[in-house]
Amino acid sequence: VTEIRIYSFMIKELCQQFPQGITDQVIQNDMPHLEPQQRAMAINKLLSLGQLDLLRNSAGLLYRMKDTQTASKMKGSDNQEKLVYQIIEDAGNKGIWSREIRFKSNLPLTEINKILKNLESKKLIKAVKSVAASKKKVYMLYNLQPDRSVTGGAWYSDQDFESEFVEVLNQQCFKFLQSKAEAARDSKQSPMVQRNSSFATSHEVWKYICELGISKVDLSMDDIETILNTLIYDGKVEMTVIAAKEGTVGSVDGQMKLYRGVNAIIQPTGLVKVPCGLCPVFDDCHEGGEISPSNCIYMAEWLDF
Amino acid sequence: MTAQEVRLCGLLLQEHFGDVVEKVGTHLLRNGAQHLRAIVQETGTPMDLVKKSLCVLIQHGACAFSSGRKGPGSPVEYQASFERILRILRYPRYIYTAKTLYGDTGELIIEELLQRGHMTMSSTVKTVADRLTLNMEEGHSMEYSEVSNTFSKLVETHFLQRCPPVEVAGKAVSATPDPATTPGAPANNTTPSTPESFADCYKVPHVTLIGRGKRRNSSEDGEDQRNAKRAKEDPETHGDEGIYWQVNFERFHLHFRDQAIISAVANKLDQTSSEIVRTMLRMSEVTTPPIATCTQALSANEIFRSLPPNYNISRPILDQYLTLLVDDPMEFVGKSGDSGGGMYVVNLHRALANLARATLESVVQERFGSRSARIFRLLLRKRHLEQKQVEDFAMIPAKEAKDMLYTLLSENLVQLQEIPKTPDHAPSRTFYLYTVNQLPTARMLLQNCFKTVANLIERRLFETKESKRLLEKSQRIEAILASLQASGAEPEQLTEVEEMITPPEKQQLESLRHHINKLDSAENQVDETIFLLESYIKSTATNKVIG
């Protein structure tokens, strides 16, 4: 038994020599007389003491010195907890779902839940509600910032989509572009100059919004571009892409996006000026039925207007 | 022939031609081509009434006859044309356009021709001159030559065309003189002859018409009827017997289409650009076939020369405007070459597709709100999207986006496309993509428009029927007033008669008038939508281009 202890000590020394981790091969080269069985027992001892980390890479198994800080934290936790902690750590800042922890660790559900509660009370991990599925909780290390895909980024605050915020930004961007277009129209210069001056780059809009200071969160240019895209889908704005020299302010990959306020090409069409065009029971209406043109209340109201 | 279309045609026929024609017409529309005996049997109307109705329909071009399908000896078959009957809805627009282009004379010419169907030039000129003279001051009357001038101008610009001549009997179909055959059934030709296939379609005949319009006093109303009848059997010949004219609807439609494009350009860009597009369209009016996707290529030099004189913009500025028009995402104008300072075409099909798309978007916006419209436009742009992608692009919270998408889906404005990942189409392993197909959606909206117009007409008839008693009373009172005034009664008598209508009744009459006017103008407005959608559908069908 003492031999195992000696061997463990020697392996630990090796690990300290190579902080990035050692493989079985390295141990064998260093201690050629060590049989695989004894080596395995020694390594297991170190693992159970919590002094070694077991990792896997493409070449095979890797043993690494464990960080003493975390080693001390884990004192008093048993193997299973350490295993779960390991899995959560590996998930990084995207977090991991409890069911996936179960798959990876092969532990029964009750055990997992107990361990998670333990770890949470020790303030080692935290649960973050995912914005995609509101009932799903992902776990990640306590001090990590959750990734954007989980919290939703700038448009979500506490899992709620901030529609008002988006609306306000929408209107502000539109007003900015509209006033720029009007200024260009009133300048009475040649048409080409007029049109070019009615364009604004996404960078300009971004700067304007930042200076307005209506946002408590920092917005990136990509965020502004998503807002501008919604304006395009509203039919109020059109976009072109031009080639820009690398290094010009606001250019991304050698191009810049330009936005411009536009007017609709037709007035609201004739069909919608009539009650039938907007009627919710249009399909049920026919002559002689309960709902018919003769007794239509919408028509009666509209006619008396 | 959908049920809505038949219903609408029935209502139009009834209003303009009466019950008998409506019965015969709807029967023909529902059952396709039929011969005379079948019509008589199935509608249960007497033979002579059926004959008269068919004559009325043929006179207006709503019905065509051709020899039977069963061979050369079979009876002639009649077929009603649903499109032509629908045009009745658009008569006010045609008349108004003629008025703006050619003044009161043009307006009356078109009105007369629309009412009568086919007329010779001489009779048209005479009738119009008489009508114009009626509205002029005492002692003035309208020259026939003025009216003839306007008539010729209308023919030159192709707004009027000759009716295709009907072959005289005894030529091709000989054998059994079927009593049902109207004289001159054309030979067994499979393709209907269009008016344009005849060489003299737009040639104004040499007509000797000298004279002025005759004024008729209102007291000769009774004589008026007899005079009108007599005029038809007028032995005076003017050299154009047998040459009948009709209104060329297609030409008017081209004009409306051009107007729609010009106003779209004016809305999107500015007045000058729309003037340039107007010039381009005017230059290619008679050279472009009606179903072309784009006009003939015009060089910038030609455009510059043809601009209206009060628009003195310099040549480089014109070039800039043209470049801007070409660069615009709506693609109204395209550049097809560089000779002559740049060859430009107006993209007719693209413009129609854009207008139709804007119509669809407008309907969705007014009916469901601007956020649903955002989703609709998003789907039009991106073609196919998943539920999650829709929420992300449109920046609408998931719950609301789902609700809106399902509403649009239930109204059939948006379709769902399934893409299975596994052969068993399990729902959890299938992609569900939302998409909008512009052409089928346009067709669906067109049917809705037909139903809407039919509803409006029915409501109008209902309102009139409700107040029938009141209307009759007011008509009697007016007649009494008129006769009293003509025979020189005293003012007290007049006021006594006027007071026979009580104030609440007056109010009712006022509101009735207001209702009827509103319904009438609403019909015209919906007809504008019908025109845009129909043009788009026709243009897509003939060009087989995904717009």
UniProtKB/TrEMBL annotation, chain A:
Keywords: DNA-directed RNA polymerase, Nucleus, Transcription. It comes from the Eukaryota. SUPFAM superfamilies: Winged helix' DNA-binding domain (SSF46785). Component of the RNA polymerase III complex consisting of 17 subunits: a ten-subunit horseshoe-shaped catalytic core composed of POLR3A/RPC1, POLR3B/RPC2, POLR1C/RPAC1, POLR1D/RPAC2, POLR3K/RPC10, POLR2E/RPABC1, POLR2F/RPABC2, POLR2H/RPABC3, POLR2K/RPABC4 and POLR2L/RPABC5; a mobile stalk composed of two subunits POLR3H/RPC8 and CRCP/RPC9, protruding from the core and functioning primarily in transcription initiation; and additional subunits homologous to general transcription factors of the RNA polymerase II machinery, POLR3C/RPC3-POLR3F/RPC6-POLR3G/RPC7 heterotrimer required for transcription initiation and POLR3D/RPC4-POLR3E/RPC5 heterodimer involved in both transcription initiation and termination. PANTHER family: RNA POLYMERASE III DNA DIRECTED , 39KD SUBUNIT-RELATED. DNA-dependent RNA polymerase catalyzes the transcription of DNA into RNA using the four ribonucleoside triphosphates as substrates. Specific peripheric component of RNA polymerase III which synthesizes small RNAs, such as 5S rRNA and tRNAs. This is DNA-directed RNA polymerase III subunit RPC6. It comes from Myripristis murdjan (pinecone soldierfish). The gene is POLR3F.
From TrEMBL, chain B:
Keywords: DNA-directed RNA polymerase, Nucleus, Transcription. Residues 149-355 form the RNA polymerase III Rpc82 C -terminal domain. Residues 174-195 have a biased composition (Low complexity). The keyword Ribosomal protein does not apply. It comes from the Eukaryota. One of its GO terms (molecular function) is single-stranded DNA binding. Transmembrane segments: none annotated. It is found in: Nucleus. One of its GO terms (cellular component) is RNA polymerase III complex. Gene3D superfamilies: 6.10.140.1450, Winged helix-like DNA-binding domain superfamily/Winged helix DNA-binding domain. Component of the RNA polymerase III (Pol III) complex consisting of 17 subunits. Belongs to the eukaryotic RPC3/POLR3C RNA polymerase subunit family. This is DNA-directed RNA polymerase III subunit RPC3. It comes from Myripristis murdjan. The lineage of its organism: Eukaryota, Metazoa, Chordata, Craniata, Vertebrata. The gene is POLR3C.
